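Appendix B, Record 12. Input sequence as logged:
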Amino acid sequence: MLTSIGRAATRRLAVTASRRAAVTQVRVAACGLGQQLNLSQSSLNRAKGYASAAQTKTVAKTTAAKPKKTTAAKTTTKAKAPAKGVKAKAKPATKTKAKAKPATKAKSKSKAKPAVKAKAKKSRAKPLSEAAKERLERKQLKQAANYTEPPSLANSAWKAYVVEQTKARTQSPSDLRGNMAEISAAWKSLPASEIRRFEQLVEQNKQANAAAYKAWVESQKPADIILANNARYMLKRKYNIPKCQLKVITDDRLPKRPTTAYLHFTKARWTSGDYSDLLSTAGAKQVMTKIGSEWKTLSEAEKKPYIDLAKVDYERYSNEVSFNDPGKD
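Logged structural output:
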C-alpha cells in the first residue's frame, strides 16, 4: 500500500507526463501545419510561376503570330496584285471606276440645274404694265426737260404788292388764300404814288429776271437745250404737262425751229382776210377753230403745197443745226 505522499507524487508524475505528451502533440501538429503551409506556399509560388510562364508563352505566341498574319496578308495581297493584271479580273475594277464617273457627272449636272433655273427665273421676270411704262416715261421726260430755270421775280405790280404783303408772314397756303380778299381790297385803295412805286419795282425785276435767265441758258450746252425742249413738247403732247401754257427754253444760239404744214396753212388763212368779219364778231378763238376744221377737210393734194413748205423749212433747220454743231460748246 502506498502512502498518501507517494500517491500524490504518482499523481503529479502522471499529470506532468500527460502535459508533456499534450505539448509534444501540439508541437508535432504545429510542425505538421508549418510543413503543410510551407508546402502550400511553395506550391502557390510554383503555380504562379507556371501561370506567368504560360502568359509569357501566350504573349510570345501572339506577338509571334501577328507578324505571321501581316506577312500572310501581305503575301496574299502580293499574291492578289498579279491577279489584277489579268484581264478578266481587271474588268470589274474598270467597271467600278466607270460607275464612279457618272456619279460625278450627275453631281455636276445637279449643281448646274439650279443655275439654269435661276437664269430662267430672271428671264421670266414679269413685263411692265402699261401704267408702269407711262410712269417711267414721264419720269425720264421730266429729267430730260431740265426744269431748273432760276426763279423769276414778280413781273407785275399786283404780284409785287402781294409778295410785299406776305413776305413777312409765315402762313400756310390755305391761310394765304383766305387773306387774299383782304389784300385785294387794300390794293384797290392804294394811292397812285404807291402803284407807280410797284411799277418801277417790276421794271427792275424784269431786268434782273432777263439777266439771270440768260446766264442760266448760257451755262447749258446747246445740245442739252434741244433735248430739253423736245422732252417738254413730248410731255405736253402726250401727258398735258404742264397743264398751263407750254414754256420752252429760248436760246439765241439755236436755229429757229421749223414750221409745220398746219402753221403754214394757218398763216395763209390769216393773211387772206376771209375771217376778218368773224374775228371782229366772235374773236380769235373762233377763227382758230374755223381754220382747224377747214384743215381737216382738205384733201392730200390741197395739203401738198403746205407740206412742201414744211419740208423746205425742216431742211433749213437741219442744215443750221449741223452747221452750228450744238453738241460742242
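Confidence is low (pLDDT under 50) at residues 36-40, 63-83, 85-90, 92-98.
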